[in-house]
């Protein structure tokens, strides 16, 4: 991968660089509630069934669509339309908005654990969607996901 590739425009990244931009926080794998009447989006503590709550990674990334057919494949083209539902700390959203990565991002810090030490990941506080019904999601809304 190229030096400082994360500073380039997103549409100039190679597929490998695009994947490497992910900070590993796991926040995009949290289930969300979209209120039809207002369009407001609420994040919950409820994670996708495939999210590993410790590593904050997908337990079946390559085959995730076999288990979660509506899992979104993030691409530079799609990002323009869906960046609003990504967490404010997301590297893809930050770069799409022309902002730099946080110091805790492993591409800056050189340490994949720094996202967790900074408290910027979902490590240790999610509930798998297999453990709760969708009716209970509202009880698990996160007020601040920054």
Automatic annotation (TrEMBL):
<dbReference type="InterPro" id="IPR005358">
    <property type="entry name" value="Puta_zinc/iron-chelating_dom"/>
</dbReference>
<dbReference type="InterPro" id="IPR008228">
    <property type="entry name" value="UCP006173"/>
</dbReference>
<protein>
    <recommendedName>
        <fullName>UPF0260 protein SAMN04489859_100136</fullName>
    </recommendedName>
</protein>
<comment type="similarity">
    <text>Belongs to the UPF0260 family.</text>
</comment>
<dbReference type="Pfam" id="PF03692">
    <property type="entry name" value="CxxCxxCC"/>
</dbReference>
